[in-house]
Amino acid sequence: MQPILSVPDTETLRGLFGRSLLQTTDASVAEIEALLDLAACFEARDRAGLKTPLLPHELAYALFFDNSTRTKSAWAGAATRLGMTPVIVDGSSTQVAHGETAAETGAMLGMNAHALGIRHDLILGEGQPFMREIRDGIASYLEATGNPRKVPVVNLQCDVDHPTQTLADAAWLRKFFPGGIAGLQIAVSWAYSPSYAKPLSVPQGLIMLLPRLGARVRLAHPPGYRLTEACMQAARDGAVAGGGGFELMDSMDAAFAGADVVYPKSWGPHELMLARVDANRAHDALRMAAIEQECLASNARHTDWICDARRMSLTRGGNALYMHCLPADIGSEVSPQVMEQHRVHVAREANHKLYCIMALLAAAKVPNLAARLAELQAGTPEGGA
């Protein structure tokens, strides 16, 4: 099969120009597929040693209010491959804690940036609104100053969704299963973690996206670890619209039974994650720390929720694809044996995030993108041929 080194000019691709992506539900399935095709194009060009400097001399800020390794690396790698200069900004260095609004922060960063990624994922009800206010602040500044620049905002994980991760997961599934995602049985399951109360956004993002692409998703978790109702409803609606399926269960074994893919991932107990909202608004560090310990104590009641060889034997042919957004708690979320078997798989899964970010930035910022890629493929000097 020939690698995809260019993409067709379509109305769907052109419709992504100037757009931010703050949740995958903001995009149609056709737009999601166009972004995945574009990511595959960028990956093929990268692996062929072809350069794709579509956005030279532009600045790509990324604002992180939480820790990150893979996403910071992916943002920097994506921006650099497009010719941009990436700058990572620590969220604690902003003036948000001193009363600056998200819209004001957006205007300040939008004065100079040509794109902005944001991670704001720890507090339910805060990350997604913050990103939308940032986007609106940038738009207002550009409009008020008559500046024609496109400054898309990319969600690098919020309290609701993790679009660059789930797009990367979908890209990896398309590569691993050449027949496509439709019809795959995928188990998205809670798993035990002793480390910290992880956000809900990865499982929420998976259940909102994959059923829209035709996958049959089973969500499993112990009592007390429910996801937000809005995301659950989006999953149900997506299954109907996309011809997939969505089923909720309370057994990890049942979710794994006959699965083609398993995605066991820890997240915090819902009620305690809600309690963090009030503690955070009150700037009560002691209460925040106490809630974290309550979360870990709750997790410890379910140490048997682990992806191990026995559970993998329940999957289709005993050989399901194991997936994880990383880092996985080895020995807790997943056994060392299963992780070792799938170590290369999860690394390749993670690497797709870089190309998905490239796709989001290029689609939003490069007019006549298909034509520009065709020019590069025809052998212009900047294409490396």
Give a short summary of the structure:
With 385 residues, the chain is α/β, with parallel strands linked by helices.
What do you see in this structure?
- With 385 residues, the protein is of the alpha/beta class.
- Helix content is 45%, strand content 12%.
- It folds into 2 domains: 11-161 and 354-383, 3-Layer(aba) Sandwich (Rossmann fold), CATH 3.40.50.1370; 164-348, Aspartate/ornithine carbamoyltransferase (Rossmann fold).
- A 5-stranded parallel sheet has the order 7-6-5-8-9.
- Helix 7 links the parallel strand 5 (185-189) and strand 6.
- The longest helix is centred in the last third of the chain and has 23 residues, at 343-365.
- The protein starts with 10 loop residues before the first helix and ends in an 8-residue tail after the last helix.
- The model is unreliable at 381-385 (pLDDT under 50).
Structural class: alpha/beta
Number of strands: 9
CATH class of the largest domain: Alpha Beta
User: Considering DSSP H and I runs of 4 or more, what fraction of the residues is helical?
Assistant: 40-55%
- Figure out the total of helices: 15
Query: H/E element string?
Result: HHEHEHEHEHEHEHEHEHHHEHHH
Global morphology: globular
The N- to C-terminal Cα distance equals 21 Å
Multimer state: single chain
CATH superfamily of the largest domain: Aspartate/ornithine carbamoyltransferase
Kindly report the spatial arrangement of strands forming the biggest sheet: 7-6-5-8-9
Overall pLDDT score: 93
CATH topology (level 3) name of the largest domain: Rossmann fold
Question: Strand content of the residues, in percent?
Answer: 5-15%
Cα-atom Rg, whole angstroms? Answer: 21 Å
CATH architecture of the largest domain: 3-Layer(aba) Sandwich
Q: What profile does the largest beta sheet have?
A: 5 strands, parallel
